[in-house]
Amino acid sequence: MSATSTFFGGYDGLLCDLDGVVYAGNGAIPGAVDVLNVLISAGVPVAFVTNNASRSPAQVAGHLRALGVMVSDNDQVFGSASAGVELLRQEVPPQGESAGGGPAVLVAGSEHLATLVSEAGYAVTADACTRPAAVIQGFDPSLGWHTLAQASYAIQNGAVWIATNLDLTIPRAEGRAPGNGSLVNAVATACGRRPDLSAGKPEPVMFELAARRWGMTRPLVVGDRLDTDIEGGNRAGFDTALVLTGIHQRTDASEVDELRTPTHIVPSLTDLLDEARTHE
């Protein structure tokens, strides 16, 4: 492929999911790193859009670099934690700019999510007895029953409930594991209701932010899930490609409505590059 700022079909950027597309667990999916580096070296803007709220963009970028991806800027990573905090700001204004001085918010999630909430001007709590104004729930593999119970109590007492994402499963090297959506469902069962808002895919916000940040006017969205990556990209008005290295397979794509139907289906990122070469 020639050194150009577009690739096959005239796309001027790649908005790429991570889990199930670039890596599964800590290990890279075969061929994914090489494809990303070819595109980056050719001058194609590449950004990563993930529903995972457990790690900061810097941590994710560090993981990608450790795998060999030529990530030059932590701002290439767009996560649902920051999008969730933005929704929190809209629903429960922090009433000031000082870190940790505003309304109490119960964080059922990672240290990264708690830090973002505090920096946004809220008092982070883990105790429903403080009568928090809101609960924000994001994925964290160490999240336990006690925290989920405290979140349930706070929600039943009237707290606004925001989920960073609703992915039911996450792909790991060993197989599928429960995702944030499964933990959200546990709280929903206890409370008898669903979250008030969800920040992550399939909402189009992160795709739109990433495209604007990197000057993409016609990006291609690549993901392994029809219900998050493909629907979210379609809702943002972008073309989408389903890769078959994660959750959903070709037969799944034949059984969904138009909103979840991908523009392209490719077995892996490697096949996406092969497809690009046929359009040189």
UniProtKB/TrEMBL annotation:
Entries under Gene3D superfamilies matching the protein: HAD superfamily/HAD-like (3.40.50.1000)
GO molecular-function term, one example from the UniProt record: hydrolase activity
InterPro entries: HAD-like_sf, HAD-SF_hydro_IA, HAD-SF_hydro_IIA, HAD_sf
UniProt entry keywords in alphabetical sequence: Hydrolase
Record flagged with keyword Hydrolase: yes
A Pfam family matched in the record: Hydrolase_6
Similarity field: Belongs to the HAD-like hydrolase superfamily.
PANTHER family in alphabetical order: 4-NITROPHENYLPHOSPHATASE-RELATED, D-GLYCEROL 3-PHOSPHATE PHOSPHATASE
NCBIfam families registered for this protein in UniProt: HAD-SF-IA-v1, HAD-SF-IIA
The protein's name in its UniProt record: HAD-IIA family hydrolase
Organism for this UniProt entry: Citricoccus muralis
